[in-house]
Amino acid sequence: MLFVHSSPRAVCPHIEWSAGRALGEAVNFDWSEQPALPGSHRAEYYWEGSSGTGAALASALRGWEQLRFEVTQDAGPGLDGGRWLHTPELGIFYAQTDSVGNVVVPEDRIRSAMESAGANAIELHRQLRLALGQSWDDELEPFRQASDLNAVVWLHQVG
Fold first, then answer.
1. Where are the domains of the chain?
2. Is the dihedral of CA 59, 135, 95, 119 positive or negative?
3. What is the reported pTM?
């Protein structure tokens, strides 16, 4: 999946072109207003591709500094999945994911965090949050929630 959480209106066609180039086919997104950032737009796009397509897609989009986005590539037989998050303030974050979408933190990263933190539990907590991409999730969450509000369908009884 590609989630464009916020993009300036003028950049939207360029985002489609960049994504289409990375995916090897023309794409058209169904853009809607992003309530969390007035004047910006959001879109979701389901894509399919070979291993490495998620990285190519994230790389194509990361040059648009005003963009907030997520790319997820599902794991397959013998292949890890991936998750790329981007915000203007933090840049890009990548994490390997397992078959159900959980972030996988490699053993060496955990050992490095433990060594760096020593006996300081607060520093260990900070290091693990960094390894999990928590700052990116924290920044993107209001945009995710605002887009969920658009998904509500109100039914009214007539008569």
1. 2-149
2. positive
3. 0.86
Q: Which two three-digit tokens encode residue 38?
A: 């007035």
Q: Cα separation of 64 and 87, whole Å?
A: 10
Tell me the two tokens of residue 62: 């990361």
What count of residues does the chain have? Answer: 159
Q: Please report, as a single letter, which amino acid is at residue 58.
A: A
- Encode pLDDT of 61-113 as tens digits: 998 889 999 999 998 888 889 999 999 999 999 999 998 889 999 999 999 99
SS3 124: helix
Is the C-alpha dihedral spanning 22, 28, 29, 33 positive or negative?
positive
Three-state DSSP at 122 gives helix
Name the residue with tokens 């990548």.
94
